Fold:
Amino acid sequence: MARTWDGRAGAEAVGATGYRGCVFYWRQRQEPEAERYGVEWGFTDRHGGVSQGQYGSLNLGAGVADDPAAVTENRSRVAQALGLAPTNLRFMSQQHGCAVHTVQPDQERSGAPDVDGIVARGSSHGVAALVADCTPVLFVDRSVGLVAAAHAGRPGMMAGVVPATVQRLRDLGAVSLEAIVGPSICGRCYEVPLSMREAAGEVSAVTPTVTWTGTPAIDVAAGVVEQLAELGVPCSWVPGCARESDDLYSYRGEGQTGRYAAVVRLLPPLGGESA
Ligand SMILES: [Zn+2]
Structure:
């Protein structure tokens, strides 16, 4: 499938929604077909929002001591860019674990679930995973109409949040999943103690690596991509390092900072959406 890796790919949609900034680090829209869902998916950047200071400007994280009103406005802008009502873009209260939540559209919204994977059926709701170095993963099944977002940092990758999310999707009927792994801190920038590298290596043999200066490091995203391959889920990997890019938030690079997000929503098939 044709893809663009242009970091400015969101500019057109940003203009269409009437505010300035970039909003999307990477974005792709695949149009619906007769009996196949379309999809809007992307990874936000740190531009085009209203947060100030170290959170400037599109911080989407609610748990990082930013002004809650600014976060609400920023989340609203991203939802609108996806064509969603703000309350229909669902976020998680992430725990660095492997629990997965399935969105119940008819249920009253009662706060963000304490999970690291979130799944939704149909086109009414989008889902989001927040990161600032951790690896964000998006899933789509365009034939049955399922989407998911997962937050995989080092602990989550090791705990198996990616297999758990894939299992939930398959339990719900997914038959043709595809995934996109977003930008995160790269292996060169993720220095860890030797013992931590060894522990990660026991879970995923592709994760142990070295930093730019040769000290022990972990490539979490490589572990995630390998897990997807082992699960038989075709995936693409969007290039970019959160710590090295001025367009992304990096906890390791900045300490107190904002969060960017992986976001995905379905577009109904042209022939209509079955309930
Ligand atoms: Zn890097």
Summary: Confidence is low (pLDDT under 50) at residues 1-20. The chain has one domain: 11-266. The domain at 11-266 is CATH 3.60.140.10 (CNF1/YfiH-like putative cysteine hydrolases). Residues 68-81 form the longest helix (14 residues).
